[in-house]
Write a structure and sequence with these properties.
Elements (H helix, E strand, L loop, with lengths): L1 H14 L1 H4 L10 H20 L4 H25 L10 H21 L12
Helix pairs in contact: 1-3, 3-4, 4-5
Length: about 120
């Protein structure tokens, strides 16, 4: 399930890379290349989740990815730069920022790195 979410977003980062440039913090060097690289990371992570031998590493790397892109989401929320088709309201930004820990946890859970909060009783 998580792979089915990451793969299309990875493709979107590649084919629509220019649309993501406004939300890149100005301190990020080579923003276009970084956006394309993040798309490749999402696609590779999605594929890695589907392969039992790479599932654990893919989950860890996707969690790190979600952590690393959080600053772009924060910048987008507070800078006020428009990035259509993404909304520019706090109805979008508030939940997006609050849910980022879930986006970090989900690949860890999907890959079996963590089982919290669904531990089985001993």
């Amino acid at each position: 399930m998580i792979a089915a979410l990451y793969a299309p977003f990875g493709v979107l980062h590649i084919v629509g890379s220019h649309g993501f440039l406004p939300i890149m913090p100005p301190v990020i060097p080579f923003p276009l290349q970084v956006v394309i690289f993040t798309g490749l990371c999402e696609i590779a992570g999605a594929a890695g989740l589907l392969i039992p031998q790479t599932r654990r590493l893919a989950g860890i790397m996707l969690a790190l990815y979600a952590l690393c892109v959080w600053p772009a989401n924060i910048y987008h929320a507070f800078s006020g730069v428009p990035a259509p088709p993404l909304p520019s309201t706090w109805w979008y930004h508030g939940p997006r920022l609050l849910l980022q820990p879930l986006f970090i946890w989900a690949p860890l859970w999907a890959s079996g790195v963590v089982n919290w909060p669904f531990r089985t009783a001993r």
